[in-house]
Structures are given as C-alpha cells and as structure tokens.
Amino acid sequence: MKRAIIIEDDFIISLFLRNQLKRLDIEVVDILDSGEDLTRSALEHKPDLLLVDVELNGKLNGIEAVRNLPSNCKPGLIFITGSPNGKNREQIRKLKPLALLGKPVGAKDLSSIINTIYEKEIFS
C-alpha cells in the first residue's frame, strides 16, 4: 500500500484529502498543519507521496518545508494552492511536482491525478 503525508492547515480540507486517499487505497500516515514537522515526519514514515498546501500555519510555507527535506527523502509531490497562478508558481515548478491543484480540490480531479500517477508508475 502506498503511503502519504498531508500538509494542510485547513482541518476540513485535510479530512477530505485523507478520505479521498483512503478510497484510492493510499494510507495517510500523518497530517500536519505546518511545515516545521515535515522533515521529521517524512524521515519517520517514508511516504511515497506528499500532498502539500502552499500556505500553512507556522513559519514555513509548503514550498520551504519541501525544500528542507533531505536529499534521501524525495517522495512524489502534489501541491495544493488557493492561487495556482500566483507568485509561487515558479518556485513550485522548480520542485518538479507531479501535479499542482487549485482549491477547491474536487474528488474527481484528485482521483484522476492519482490514477494517472499510478498508471504511469511515476511513484513506486
């Protein structure tokens, strides 16, 4: 079973994402609302996938939190943002995510992207 960490500061959205991933047979091993704990959690749980909101509680945004991951910990990335065409788009692109989703995230959109990732065996 694939493993994922959700980094999202909106509780309702994080529950929605968790439920959608569960339906897709992906185990959510942690849910974080700030970027400060991402490195610890990723090293502990060794996820295949990170669903990362750009704007988070705390000092680090989602982009900075992902940049802080050690080189031996590089799971697949799906970024989620309320402004997908905003100033962070270029910074996100440099991190080579599997997808960039705008909010609100729809169940069909997320399922389609995850299924495409599985079909192309982008993360194994």
Order of helix and strand elements from N to C terminus? EHEHEHEHEH
Question: How much helicity do the residues have?
Answer: 25-40%
Domain count, please report it: 1
By DSSP (H or I, 4+ residues per run), the number of helices equals 5
CATH class: Alpha Beta
The CATH architecture: 3-Layer(aba) Sandwich
**Biggest sheet, in brief?**
5 strands, parallel
Number of DSSP E strands: 5
The rounded distance between the terminal residues' Cα atoms is: 10 Å
pLDDT under 50 segments (min length 5)?
none
Q: What is the general shape?
A: globular
Mean pLDDT: 91
At CATH level 3, the topology is: Rossmann fold
Offer a few descriptive terms.
alpha/beta, Rossmann fold, 5 helices, 23% strand
Task: Summarize the helices and strands and which ones pair or pack.
Elements: E1 2-7, H1 11-23, E2 26-32, H2 38-45, E3 49-53, H3 62-67, E4 76-81, H4 89-94, E5 99-102, H5 107-119
Brief account:
It comes from Natronogracilivirga saccharolytica. The chain is of the alpha/beta class and 124 residues long.
